Amino acid sequence: MTLEEKVQQIGDTAKGVPRIGLPRYEWWSEALHGVSNVGQQGSKASFFDDVVPGATSFPMVILTAASFNETLWKTIGQVVSTEARAMHNVGHAGLSFWSPNINVVRDPRWGRALETPGEDPFVVGRYAANYVRGLQDVEGTENVTDLNSRPLKVAACCKHYAAYDVDNWLGVVRESFDARVREQDMIETFVKPFEMCVKEGDVTSVMCSYNRINGIPACADRRLLKDTIRGEWDLHGYIVSDCDSIEVMRDRHKWLNDDAEDAVSQALKAGLDLDCGSFYSDYGANAVTQGKVREADIDEALRNLYFVLMRLGFFDGSPKFDNLSKDHICSQDHINLAIQAAREGIVLLKNDNQTLPLDSQKIKTIAVVGPHANATDAMIGNYAGVPCRFTAPIDGFQQYGKVTYATGCQGVVCKNDTMIYPAVRAALNADASVIVAGLDLSIEAESLDREDLLLPGYQTELINQVATRSKGPVILVIMSAGGVDITFAKNHPNISAILWAGYPGEEGGHGIADVVFGAYNPGGRLPLTWHKNEYVDMLPMTSMPLRPIDSLGYPGRTYKFFNGSTVYPFGYGLSYTTFNYSLAATKRSLDIKLNKYQHCRQINYTDAAFQPSCAGVLIDDLESCDNQNVEFSVEVKNTGERDGSETILIYWSPPSEIRDAQIKELVAFNKVFVQAGQSAKVKFNLNACKSLRYVDYKGYSLLASGRHTIAVGDNILSFPLSINYEVSE
């Protein structure tokens, strides 16, 4: 190819070279929770029409993450990639999908929480690895040794790298925001899920974000891109910009006062292979002729891109998937999985006097009211395509009784109280009332962060009036991504039960009704903390540190660093049955011998704490990491009368004497189904260097000596673990 031909292939619309038979390719497609029709305007790779009218739309990621079911996460990825391949076979989809979004939800106001797996970096990373494996893996080739030639079902992309979680808050927008981030937080929180996505998921692409990080645009930071993603993590694929990020570098960040050719050269040298936009195509050739970047850098980008297309079979075909057709899109099995995903993610937050599940033999009439009672589009959130069908809440409840419907509000914003009384009147005569309230994309979305954590408009008034006047039990269902301060409902004596349903996908109404009437026993857990509204008055969204800033009065962020009161904590969720735990730990100490060339490191302790002679050692310096494991088993007994699933959450707390250490950190989890009266034993094996890693304020990853704690759930059970160093002379 000539230079001019080359630069036309490194934008999201690769124009091809007819002269040598190189076809055109559109890189941008989305598959966040199903095949989407979001893409480049005028040349979308994935679209719907009479030939392919829709694809299965699963719950938004925040709800799927609440299932804490890694098998489900991977299975959804497999179904989405099957439908994507089937659409590709009839010319309706590309093969590269810029999903999933794996940014950690640092602040409860963030508008894109619905797209992500929540606030814990480990959960986010495990979701990423499983969903990506589901999208990409071709059965039988998962363990191919040459990963640059490993076949792909479709190509996934983990985004947005890194420290991206401010969209549009009080005039601060992502395109000009400079995230001032400590190295400690980068390693612990912002970068960790991406490392897991590349190393454990073998993702084929990482997307850099719009924002600057400590003054440098993410898409022009060689240390973040070439040195880390491709070098340290060994990416087998390409790095792509968020759309128009290079233009944003020039026009919004005004970084180094670069002109277009400067910005292009900076990005190419940093390791950015693909420009979602036109800057590479428009200015790449000039950047080379002006001597600002080498043509060899463009050649390297092309190699990274076309290796992926070859692994996808774009040029030679993929016979293994040739049989996939329209019959494999929106199949009943796929729709059933969407129902199951909604059921598994729903979280039971309150259930006074075991009001739920409702008995369909006794509850014959149901008032289903509220702005989401007849929700359809709201249930599939954003980055959604056209669903196979919708089952709204009122449709789901009609399977169990006679439904009386009243919206109670004119939309989610609920600007006045004029429609409340019809909802109250419906509740006056019903055996049970279900209020379906919450948020939607007009409140929390990409480019739209929240300013408070309250229900919009008159929704609170609607809920209170219906609860006060209802004839039968009242069940409140909240649709949202971020937490909502519903303390009033939590404490309301007439609201017997509360469910959180996220944005539950095309079959959301089916899933909600099945949980309310006991066809499914809820087992979901909150993937992020539900803060009280006063939390957002304590600190600006733009303050990036996760640890408290005592000098400014800023509290900590996420469950790892916030020790105040909440509406509902991370990991919270009830069941219709009860579980008892027992713990068997086989090892309660690790004694590690150091040779005379291994150095002990100082750790910042609290003032009165005893300081051991060897406070900690760099994990990279420990030769015996593979053998430093903590094995134990947890037995879960279902002591209730219903079968159910329980999520076992394993937390680690570092020695309490370490200053500014996390309160606790999730290091393992397992979802287990247990029949009534039966028990299940789950074994855990934690590698100390991976699971008990402490990152100090200098950015060093250490294994600290002293008394660590391993806890099951919210301190249901725990045991101490001592780490001791013996230094050889």
What does this structure look like?
β14, α15 and β15 form a beta-alpha-beta unit. The protein has a six-stranded mixed sheet with strand order 11-16-15-14-12-13. The protein has a five-stranded mixed sheet with strand order 18-28-27-22-23, with no helix packed on it. It has a four-stranded antiparallel sheet with strand order 19-20-26-25. The mean pLDDT is 96. It contains 19 helices and 28 strands. By secondary structure, the chain is of the alpha/beta class.
In round numbers, the mean pLDDT is 96
Number of helices: 19
User: How many beta-strand elements?
Assistant: 28
| Net shape | globular
Please indicate the percent range of residues in DSSP E strands (runs of 2 or more): 15-25%
* Helix percentage: 10-25%
Distance between the termini: 63 Å
Determine the structural class based on helices, strands and strand pairing: alpha/beta
Main β-sheet: number of strands, strand sense, barrel status?
A: 6 strands, mixed
Low-confidence stretches: none
Strands of the biggest beta sheet: in what spatial order? 11-16-15-14-12-13
Radius of gyration: 26 Å
Domain Fibronectin type III-like: 646-716
Protein name: Probable beta-D-xylosidase 5
Pfam family, one: Glyco_hydro_3_C
Keywords: Glycosidase, Hydrolase, Signal
Task: Please tag this protein with its features.
729 residues; alpha/beta; 28 strands; 19% strand
Draw up the topology in text.
Blueprint: H1 3-7, E1 13-14, E2 25-26, H2 61-66, H3 70-89, H4 121-136, E3 158-161, E4 168-169, E5 172-173, E6 178-179, H5 183-190, H6 192-199, E7 205-208, E8 212-213, E9 216-217, H7 223-232, E10 238-241, H8 245-253, H9 260-270, H10 279-289, H11 295-311, H12 332-345, E11 347-351, E12 365-369, H13 393-397, E13 402-406, H14 420-428, E14 432-438, H15 459-469, E15 474-479, H16 487-491, E16 495-500, H17 508-516, H18 558-561, E17 579-585, E18 589-594, E19 600-601, E20 616-618, E21 629-638, E22 644-653, E23 665-674, E24 679-687, H19 688-691, E25 694-695, E26 701-704, E27 706-712, E28 717-727
Parallel strand pairs: 3-7, 6-8, 7-10, 12-13, 12-14, 14-15, 15-16, 18-28
Antiparallel strand pairs: 1-2, 4-5, 8-9, 11-16, 17-21, 19-20, 20-26, 21-24, 22-23, 22-27, 25-26, 27-28
Helix pairs in contact: 3-4, 4-6, 8-9, 9-10, 12-17, 14-15
